[in-house]
Design brief:
This protein is an alpha/beta fold and 357 residues long. The protein has 14 helices and 12 strands. A 6-stranded parallel β-sheet has the order 2-1-3-4-5-11, covered by helices on one side. A 6-stranded mixed β-sheet has the order 7-6-8-9-10-12, with helices on both faces.
Length: 357
């Protein structure tokens, strides 16, 4: 079989002959059925890729009104809203309809990965953008088996190498945050991270650690904690840090939401920021600009991430060649009013001890 054969004239029977299997077996692979041996599936997929065969879903993609589903954990964070705005902006340019799905609002019995993936095909969705921690590897594989174009934004866990993803330079952002505090003169710098297993949180932590170690500073385990990307994590961690014999003079929070929790607890305990403690967030959302004081934050190009994700999905739908399956956009530090040089103050230390009691 020649690889120059036009995909529109290519038949399943021809693919089956090339792969040395039956036509029903090729049909099962094309439709994402699981009852095919992995070695056989791999052989069929190799022939499909070589010949440029397009699945029925792909051949129907991008009609006059193409539809892409965007899946979020929730929309109660500035991070999610910014990403969604980017998706919608690009959708308007590309004349694509976006269907929004929020996993925290779903009702009824749980839907299996296979059922959800099949529903995408039944409803003729062109592709999917995933901005959620609810989709595990089994869910992602179910979409892949059905050749559903998909992009994961800033995944909490490292996706398989063949999964398209869009993210930001988290390590560089973490290093920039810690370096800023070090340049101000801080040496006792805490890190309040997101979920311990989250890839983005680990990268930010490692960037923070690299900056400290470059200055010969040992990372104190009492200054490092993890939790959800939520304000309550910042509240809890701030309480623990203020209870230490030597509380930090600065905190790097792995998200603006966590930093807002830190600010709230600082107000409750009469800790002045930045006079008595500096604070840096991560995300660069509008919340950082509007907080009191305005928050120094590592800005992620959240809207650009959303725009890139949709473009990435549509390129897959059209069958275009993509140089890399991972797009990583640059972060940059925005200095506002929540950071300043540290103050050595007996009064501050006494205040911390009083709070512990």
């Amino acid at each position: 079989m020649s690889t120059s054969t036009k995909p529109s004239k290519l038949t399943l029977a021809a693919v089956a002959k090339e792969a040395g299997v039956s036509t029903p077996t090729v049909s099962k692979v094309v439709n994402g059925r699981e009852d095919v041996a992995e070695a056989t599936r791999a052989r069929v997929l190799a022939v499909l890729e070589k010949t440029g065969y397009r699945s029925p879903l792909q051949r129907k993609s991008l009609p006059a009104a193409s539809t892409v589903e965007a899946v979020f954990d929730s929309l109660n964070s500035a991070y999610s809203v910014e990403v969604l705005n980017g998706v919608l902006e690009q959708a308007s340019v590309a004349d694509v309809e976006v269907i929004l799905s929020v996993t925290s609002r779903q009702v009824g019995p749980p839907v299996s990965p296979e059922e959800r993936a099949q529903r995408m095909i039944d409803e003729r969705r062109s592709g999917m953008i995933v901005v959620t921690s609810a989709f595990d590897s089994a869910q992602l594989r179910a979409f892949q088996r059905r050749q559903i174009p998909m992009v994961v934004i800033d995944p909490l866990n490292p996706p398989a190498l063949d999964v398209f993803s869009v993210g930001a330079s988290n390590w560089a952002g973490g290093k920039a945050a810690a370096t800023h505090l070090l340049e101000l003169g801080h040496r006792r710098i805490a890190y309040i991270g997101g979920p311990a297993a989250a890839e983005c949180s680990q990268a930010r932590l490692h960037g923070y650690m690299a900056a400290l170690m470059a200055e010969g500073i040992t990372v104190d385990h009492e200054y490092v904690s993890s939790g959800p990307f939520r304000p309550e994590n910042g509240v809890k961690a701030m309480k623990a840090l203020l209870a230490l014999e030597d509380p930090p003079t600065a905190i790097f929070a792995a998200s603006d939401s966590i930093a807002l929790g830190v600010l709230a607890e600082a107000r409750r305990q009469d800790v002045r920021i930045p006079e008595e403690m500096s604070l840096v967030g991560f995300d660069g959302t509008h919340q950082a600009e509007e907080s009191v004081p305005p928050l120094t934050s590592v800005s992620q190009p959240l809207q650009e991430m959303g725009r890139s994700a949709l473009s990435f999905v549509l390129r897959q739908v059209r069958g275009e060649e993509v140089d890399s399956r991972r797009v990583e956009l640059a972060t940059h530090l925005v200095v506002r009013e929540s950071t300043a040089a540290p103050r050595t103050s007996v009064l501050w230390r006494n205040a911390a001890r009083t709070q512990r009691r």
